[in-house]
Amino acid sequence: MADTALETNPVTNASGVNTKGDAFSSFNVDDFAVPGGRDEDWRFISLRRIRGLHNASFAPVAEANISVEAPAEVAVETVAPDDARLKAAGAPVDRVAAQAFTSAKSGTIVSIPADAELTEPVTITVTGAGDEVTTFGTVLIESGANSSATVVVRYAGTGTHADNVNWVIGDNSRVYAVVDTQWDDDAVHLGAQSIVVGRDATLRHTVAGFGGEVTRMTPRVKFTAPGGDVELTGVYFADDGQYIENRLLVDHSVPNCRSNVMYKGALQGDKASAKPDARTCWVGDVLIRAEALGTDTYETNRNMVLTDGARADAIPNLEIETGEIAGAGHAATVGRFDDEQLFYLRARGIPEKEATRLIIRGFFNEVLNKIPVESVRDELIARVSGELEQANL
Q1: Which domain of life is it from (predicted)?
Q2: Does residue 324 lie within any of the structural domains?
Q3: Which of 31, 67, 86, 97 pairs with 303 at a CA distance of 20 to 30 A?
Q4: Count of alpha carbons within 13 Å of 228, Cβ hemisphere only?
């Protein structure tokens, strides 16, 4: 009987490297294999719902609509997609991000000069190009040494979009960043963010996820010198038909840096809806390398499931290669709101529905109150209230 060769399709259920901080990276999409639904980095998202962004079967490519409003001292440039400066924060680590870099028709560079103290925020707005087209974007935000700035990145409209929004945080600079994915309900967006933090630099980075049909944000932080201080915070609220994923990495590779991660999410659904159930996924990786002495880090993810059928996955990971650290820890929860708090409020005459909404608002406000721009903070608080008004609680 003749021998028969057995063909196999391997599943990349492991990274193939020592740590996630050492993941393969490239600016060329052809260097990445097409991911499958069982691959570790893609096993939660439905590849069928991301409109071919992962395997190049996407709709024709259109120019991304990216606009920037900034104080006069900020330099804003539209550059060729192969401009070497766009590579300053490092190469993509997944195929969709590499596709975005390969296929973007132009790049945007926003430069905050050294020693600048901006009193008004920089606002970068990405507007979807609509149905039947796909857009890709590459944006670099760089802060000069000893500068201070607030940068708001807004997404609006509808369409299919993938991008790299990267950050180079200069020595002793302070950047307050808000990334607001307020897409229309039928938008699909996969966004990668590479963040490089310099000596004694401070970054406060908040992601707000309320819109879109499918959204996936993947910030990756790398410290390049001692003294860096990073806080990554996020809020998200998923309804029927929505999938929201936040997948992040903080790579401590130098001594005496600090990081804190806090993401909070809520989910609600409608049993009568024909849409897929609301679903969220949060994966938080913190790596402390052997040389990262004196690291201080903690990560938290809290999820509040408001109705039956909704599902939240929460996966914190902490890799520690040295015991000479100031502290490290993580926590994650998925559950309903606190019944004791509800009882306390009802005992004081507050109706159950209003008491429930007060608890949920307080749940989110711990993150939202950290946003330094009052108008943005108030808008997001109002958005949470709007979600609760529509909720069948």
Answers
A1: Bacteria
A2: yes
A3: 97
A4: 32
Q: Which phi and psi (to 5°) does residue 213 adopt? A: -80, -45
CA separation, residue 111 to residues 8, 11, 206, 243, 314 (Å)? 48, 41, 20, 33, 35
pLDDT score of 256: 98
Residues 6+ apart with CB under 8 A from 171: 145, 146, 198, 199, 200, 201, 225
Cβ contact 380:295 at 8 Å: no
Residue 30 CA to its chain's centroid (Å): 24
Is the pTM higher than 0.90? yes
Consecutive sets of 10 residues in the chain, 393 residues long: mean pLDDT of each?
A: 40 59 94 95 96 98 97 98 96 98 97 97 97 97 98 97 98 97 96 98 96 97 98 95 97 98 91 86 97 97 90 95 93 80 69 78 88 88 82 61
Q: Could you give the 3-state DSSP secondary structure of residue 297? A: strand
Contact between residue 80 and residue 112 where contact means Cβ atoms under 8 Å apart: no
- The residue type found at 272 is A
Q: Is the dihedral of CA 362, 368, 370, 375 positive or negative?
A: negative
Show Cβ contacts of residue 18 under 8 Å, excluding neighbours closer than 6 positions. none
In a domain, 37, yes or no: yes
Q: Which of 31, 13, 391 is nearest to 239 (CA)?
A: 391
Give the chain's domain count: 1
Query: Which residues does 180 contact at the CB level (< 8 Å), separation at least 6?
Result: 152, 153, 154, 155, 208, 376, 380
Residue 186, CB half-sphere, CA atoms under 13 Å: how many? 6
CA torsion sign for 138, 144, 146, 147 is negative
Does 344 map to a domain? Answer: no
129 in a domain, yes or no?
yes
How many distinct helices (H) and strands (E) make up the chain?
4, 19
Q: How far apart are CA 126 and CA 64, in angstroms?
A: 7
Q: What is each CA distance from 108 to 68, 85, 95, 145, 181, in whole angstroms?
A: 9, 10, 21, 20, 19
Q: Find the domain containing 92 and state its range.
A: 20-338
Q: Which residue has the tokens 């998202």?
A: 45
